User: What shape does this take?
Amino acid sequence: MPLVHFDLIEGRDKESIKRLLDVSHEVIVEAFDVPERDRYQIVHEHSAYQMIIEDTGLEINRTDNLVVLTIISKARPNDKKEKLYSLLAERLEKHCGISPHDVMVSIVENGEADWSFGLGEAQFLNGKL
Assistant: This one.
């Protein structure tokens, strides 16, 4: 955990998506101090007309290279969240050619009882994690 959903406008090739996922995972490992194999990522691709992501009055100009990350996670300190936002913007631009204007992130927090990694168990509650 965390579980990361990527909403993208369709049209990226497999290599670009893999690089996006790899770079994002590296950032999450660094910013949130999670284990390397703690990787749960799902990509959703949409037609451009199915994603309306405006700028909330911040003068942020978006393109079809837009990436919306929804990160579902246990609570994290604000400084780790700010580090995540900064590193994502920096590294996605450097390694994937995605402008910081095209990176939007929302973190949805939940608790230990809200996770089952399989086997019909709550691993955080039963002590396996």
